[in-house]
């Protein structure tokens, strides 16, 4: 990443932007919330790109505030936030965010800074942020351009959205259903790394905008189809996140067509590592873990794999039989099940309650690569346990479903 010409920043600009870091820490989320409100009012067409559920829940403004804060901290060396840029760029490519969108975002971000901060946003500060945004946008566009090129250049790759039909629909639990997607044109599809996701475009009748959702791929690559496993949320005015999942579960049957973008994401299994592999999931967070587990089993990998899944009970426990078959098939795979509220008839589980550090220490090795995914609270607990155990950061890998937040 570089901020050199045409976006080389002066020392004055860098100093001014860095001086706003304390202000962003205090008012960042108010600024980004106001930014989205103003931008969507003037450009409602952008609702077709942004996840409006994350807007209503406040997750997107909070994530953007964190990103702006990090950019201000490191404006003199944007390479310091390259991992964050790469992660966001993966999502942008998957959502088809293009260079022409950046000037619009920049315009309304500056308006929001001025309107929220009022007189504190001096002319010098606004000028510095205008220049800084140009550098930041330029860095993102450069990274995303390469990702667009890579998506097309891959064997079986494509640009934009490509139509896939639902070849099979399988109920995995009381709340999770899998959709097996095959290309409508019958041509080859690109492979992916276990843990990556696809963006699905949903055009629901009577909806004012297109809905985009990113779903982890839950099967091993190389099978001629993509499998996503979707948890049904209860939709409604207070639970807007359930509108799309309910539509998929209730309205779309085998044969229906879904436009999707090529697989993306920077959270995926490092297959070059031969250390023991620990996969920890909560609820529907098991979907990327299933892809990783599938990959290990079907590659006949001799790497020791520990699969730990937490669910409320057997009724909502997806892929139970599939994982049990993997354990029988592969001597290197061990699986543990934790139920927080087991039913009277539930028996095939290893622990009642939650995953805590003492128990975790008893079932998985310390010297391992840890991957985990699940609800935010679950992830905080797992992350805290691993840090308390002293597991090095480079051995800890996780993904949020939705905008990136912080586990600290």
Automatic annotation (TrEMBL):
Residues annotated as transmembrane: none
Annotated residues for binding of NADP(+): 283-288
Binding annotation for FAD: 197, 213-216, 400-403
UniProt-annotated binding residues for heme b: 92
Function: Is involved in NO detoxification in an aerobic process, termed nitric oxide dioxygenase (NOD) reaction that utilizes O(2) and NAD(P)H to convert NO to nitrate, which protects the bacterium from various noxious nitrogen compounds. Therefore, plays a central role in the inducible response to nitrosative stress.
Residues the record marks as active site: 102 (charge relay system), 144 (charge relay system)
Reaction(s) catalysed by this chain's protein: 2 nitric oxide + NADPH + 2 O2 = 2 nitrate + NADP(+) + H(+); 2 nitric oxide + NADH + 2 O2 = 2 nitrate + NAD(+) + H(+)
Protein family (similarity comment): Belongs to the globin family. Two-domain flavohemoproteins subfamily. In the C-terminal section; belongs to the flavoprotein pyridine nucleotide cytochrome reductase family.
Pfam families, A to Z: FAD_binding_6, Globin, NAD_binding_1
Residues under site feature: Involved in heme-bound ligand stabilization and O-O bond activation: 36
Record site: Influences the redox potential of the prosthetic heme and FAD groups: 91, 399
Descriptive protein name: Flavohemoprotein
Name of the top EC class for this enzyme: oxidoreductase
InterPro entries assigned: Cbr1-like_FAD-bd_dom, FAD-bd_FR_type, Flavoprot_Pyr_Nucl_cyt_Rdtase, FNR_nucleotide-bd, Globin, Globin-like_sf, Globin/Proto, Hmp
Organism: Halobacillus campisalis
Domain spans labelled Globin: 8-145
